[in-house]
Write a structure and sequence with these properties.
The longest helix has 42 residues. Helix 1 packs antiparallel against helix 2, helix 1 packs antiparallel against helix 12 and helix 7 runs antiparallel to helix 8. The chain is mostly helical. Helix content is 63%, strand content 3%. A hairpin with a 4-residue loop joins strand 3 and strand 4. It starts with 7 loop residues before the first helix and ends in a 7-residue tail after the last helix. The strands form two sheets. A two-stranded antiparallel sheet has the order 1-2. A two-stranded antiparallel ribbon has the order 3-4. The chain contains twelve helices and four strands.
Length: 375
Amino acid sequence: MNQNQRFLSLDVFRGLTIACMILVNTPGSWSHVYSPFLHAKWHGCTPTDLVFPFFLFAVGNAMSFAMKKFNTMSNAAVLGKIFKRTALIFVIGLLLSWFPFIKYNAEGNFVMKGLDTLRILGVLQRIALCYGIGALLVHYLRPKGAFIATCVLLLGYWAILWFFGGSDPYSLEGHIGLQIDLAIIGENHMYKGEGIPFEPEGLLSTLPAVGNVVFGYLVGRYVQQNRHARGMLLKLVLAGSMLIVLGILWGTVFPINKKIWTSSYTLYTVGIATLLLSILIYLIEMRNWRWGTYFFEVFGKNPLFIYVMSGVVVKLYFLFRLGEKNENMYSWLYNHVFRPAFGDYPGSLLFGIFHVLLLWLLGWWMDRKKIYIRV
C-alpha cells in the first residue's frame, strides 16, 4: 500500500456514503420509491439503512489519521479541539434544521420560523455527539480501553432497554428512549414522521451509535499499522464477517433496528462497512484501481459541506411556488419534468440521481479550486 495514497480508499468510501445519502434523501416523490431506497419500517435492515452507520464508520476511520497529532498536544488543547468540532457540527445541524428561517403561513405569506418547534436532534447532531464521545474514549482510554468501553455501551444499552422498557421494549411506544427524549427535549422539538413524536436520532440511541465511530477508528488504525503485513486484508475480511454473524445472532433476541439503533444493528453495519472498505483497499491501494474513483473522491473531500448543501438546496425548493396549482419547486420539478419524461418510479429515482450529479459538480468545482472545508 502506498503511504502517499493512504487516504484515497477512505475518501472513496466516505464519498460513496455521501452520494448515497443524497440519493436516498432526495426522491422525486416519497410515494414512488423503489424498496431498496426506503428505510425498514421498523425491525430489519435495507440497503438505505446502511448509509448513516457507514458515514459514522468513516468518521472513525478518519479519526485514526487525524488524532495522531493529539499525542503532541496538551490535554487542554485536545479537549478544546474535540469540543470545538463537536459544537460546530451540532450547531450546523441546528441551523440546517431551522433553515431557511422563514415559512409560509396559512394566508400564503412569509413569516419567521419560530424556535418553539425547532427539531433539536438530527443527522448532523448525531454525527457531532458520536464524534465527540468516540474521540474522548479513544484519546483517554486508548484503543483497548475504547474497545472495552464500546462493548459496555452496547451491552448496557441492551440492558437499559430490556429492564426499563415497556412490555415490548423494542417497539416504538415501548422504547425507553422515547420517554427520555420526551422528558428532556420535549415533543415540540422532536421528529414527527412516525405518527407520534419520536426521535430516530435520540439521546439514548446515540450510545450504541458511538460504536460505529469507535470501530471505524480501530479498523483505520489497524490498516495503518499493518499496511505492509501479510494477511492484513484477510484478517480484516474475517473480522468483518464475524461482526456480521454476531450482529445477526444477537438480532434474534435484540432485533436489528436502525430507528432505535440497536446494538445488533451496530455490529451488523460495522461488519458490512469493514468488508466494503476491505474491497476498496484491495482494489485501490493494492491493485491501483483508479477507474471511477474520482467521482466518489470528490464527495469524500468535502463530505459535511456537500451534505449540508444538499439539505440547503432541498429546503430552498420549498420557498418557491410555481404553476397554476401553486406547487413548491421540488414537487413541480418531479411532476412536470422527471415524471412525464420517465414515469413514476424511474422519474423519482432519476430526480435523486440528478441531485447527486448537481452536488457532485459543486464538489468538483471546489476540488479544482483546492477548496476543502474542514470543521
